[in-house]
Amino acid sequence: MKCGRWEYAEHKNASAVVAIAALFEGCLVLTEQFRIPVGRTVIDLPAGLVGDCTADSGELAQVAAERELLEETGFKAAIWTESLLVPSSPGLTSETVRIYLAERLEKISADGGVSSEEIIVHLVSLEEFDAQLEQWLSEGKLIDPKVFVALHLLR
């Protein structure tokens, strides 16, 4: 999209983005998957688009967050709290991300996303996060900044 000389990206088939800071037995639930735009593996929060297909038009953000957490990680949360609304990259896109805290998790299905996704789920204790971060960085993985927002919210 263009606004004067400024160009930026917008989602055509989604109304918003959600990310989930989920805590299971003292561990932050994270996802790992290869991301084509950056050409690298990224460690991220479970996340996804709100209303990204015709069947989901009018989908509520929390409903999308619940769907994404279950789809990507196999967890269902009993307690949901909407926490923050943050821009994902305000110089590039109009996208904002609504971050939810998910608590009292129960594992109810296999993880890994839908058939087109290859997602690895990690449970990382808050005390061991720094050491795990160093390991991932030494392996050349990228860490999405929303992970640090989640750590701040959970600590």
Number of helices: 3
Gyration radius, rounded = 16 Å
Mean pLDDT: 86
Query: Which stretches are low in confidence, meaning pLDDT under 50 for 5 or more residues running?
Result: none
By oligomeric state, this entry counts as single chain
Report on this model:
The chain has 155 residues and is of the alpha+beta class. 21% of the residues lie in helices and 41% in strands. It contains three helices and ten strands, in the order E-E-E-E-E-E-H-E-E-E-H-E-H. The strands form two sheets. Strands 3, 4, 5, 6, 7, 8, 9 and 10 form an eight-stranded mixed beta sheet that branches. Strand 3 (16-24) and strand 4 form a beta hairpin. The mean pLDDT is 86.
Topology:
Elements lengths: L1 E2 L2 E2 L8 E9 L2 E9 L4 E5 L2 E4 L10 H13 L1 E13 L8 E12 L12 E6 L3 H10 L3 E2 L2 H9 L1
Parallel strand pairs: 3-8, 5-10
Antiparallel strand pairs: 1-2, 3-4, 3-6, 4-5, 4-9, 7-8
Produce a short descriptive summary.
By secondary structure, the chain is of the alpha+beta class. The chain is 21% helix and 41% strand. Strand 4 (27-35) and strand 5 form a beta hairpin.
